[in-house]
Amino acid sequence: MSDPMSQLVRKNVRDLTPYQSARRLGGCGDVWLNANEYPTPVNFSLTQQTLNRYPECQPREVISRYAQYAGLTPDNVLVSRGADEAIELLIRAYCEPGQDTVLYCPPTYGMYSVSAETYGVQTKTQRLTEAWQLDVPAILQQIDSVKIVYICSPNNPTGHLLKAEDIRQVLTATAGKALVVVDEAYIEFCPQASVVSWMQQFPHLVVLRTLSKAFALAGLRCGFTLAQPGVIQTLLKVIAPYPLSTPVADIASQALSDEGLSAMRARVAELNAIRDTFIPRLAELPCVEQAFLSDTNYFLIRFHDSPAIFKGLWDQGIILRDQTKNPLLGGCLRVSIGTEAEMESLYQALTQFGPKGARQ
Ligand SMILES: *Cc1c(COP(=O)(O)O)cnc(C)c1O
């Protein structure tokens, strides 16, 4: 597509590769296991009819319920249009373009680099170790000029927790110099591992959360930043005046009620059980080299011939996420945990492939 106005576009935006969301990648199927969504819709009804009025910038009930759920106080909580908006707000508020840098550890979530590049902020990367853990000495070696370290734990797409001790070492070494942002988008699947209680000790710790995964509300677009009140106040300076629409706040508030929280915990138990039954079963199949354990609602499978498997499943309407272009993830496809029936369809479809990937 030629765009006669392209010479007017900022250079870093011209050069930007946009985030390849599952939705943009398309596909035509009936078994969608590619976006880490909850597999079935949850019902809500709208209770607020005052759409003639602007919404509250930070709806009080949503904030106070989330604070209570997270074990914090309301002044530690910011709500935004998904955790994705929070990733971007932090860069806008803390990083000087052309001067400060953002560090993240691939293979990991794609939005840290996209948001940094959009604002003209340089990125540094430090690959995870072969065991898919933080390479702490290498991170600390390149920490100069870094304003924000993004750490995703449990990590997407690898599906496992990063060692708490390593995160603590990064926090200790960056005190007073940089923010350490721990992205806990999937923490509901392993809640005991949250680092949120470390915030007292480390005032530069920021935790990101979302309603998109365990809360089954990816379409709502609602996420949270947990941090010291000073950090929250700074982010409030740059956030849009009305980041959440009235219906979003209405539904988020219901999702965070006692009833909403117990429904969420029941969904987590169900998905974790499905995951723990299917990973060992899939690991036995001839086309599978390895099925990796997971602390989340998705997991990686390394196949002997991943392109053939990816396309073969795609053609049958089973859509997975290709991770083979990522460092350390050669041959790997990511599977989101679907319903038991969807996982059974995946299993049955995979039994048709031999070790070379060819259909038998
Ligand atoms: C899904 C996801 C997000 C984005 O969450 P939204 O609230 O839907 O914007 C952020 N971080 C990670 C690691 C994710 O997987």
UniProtKB/TrEMBL annotation:
Keywords: Amino-acid biosynthesis, Aminotransferase, Histidine biosynthesis, Pyridoxal phosphate, Transferase. Pathway: Amino-acid biosynthesis; L-histidine biosynthesis; L-histidine from 5-phospho-alpha-D-ribose 1-diphosphate: step 7/9. SUPFAM superfamilies: PLP-dependent transferases (SSF53383). Its cofactor is pyridoxal 5'-phosphate. It catalyses: L-histidinol phosphate + 2-oxoglutarate = 3-(imidazol-4-yl)-2-oxopropyl phosphate + L-glutamate. The keyword Amino-acid biosynthesis applies. It holds the Pfam family Aminotran_1_2. One of its GO terms (molecular function) is histidinol-phosphate transaminase activity. The modification N6-(pyridoxal phosphate)lysine is found at residue 213. Residues 32-350 form the Aminotransferase class I/classII large domain. GO terms for biological process: L-histidine biosynthetic process. Its EC number is 2.6.1.9. InterPro entries: Aminotrans_II_pyridoxalP_BS, Aminotransferase_I/II_large, HisP_aminotrans, PyrdxlP-dep_Trfase, PyrdxlP-dep_Trfase_major, PyrdxlP-dep_Trfase_small. The keyword Amino-acid biosynthesis applies. PANTHER family: HISTIDINOL-PHOSPHATE AMINOTRANSFERASE (PTHR42885:SF2), HISTIDINOL-PHOSPHATE AMINOTRANSFERASE-RELATED (PTHR42885). Belongs to the class-II pyridoxal-phosphate-dependent aminotransferase family. Histidinol-phosphate aminotransferase subfamily. NCBIfam families: hisC. Homodimer. This is Histidinol-phosphate aminotransferase. It comes from Rosenbergiella nectarea.
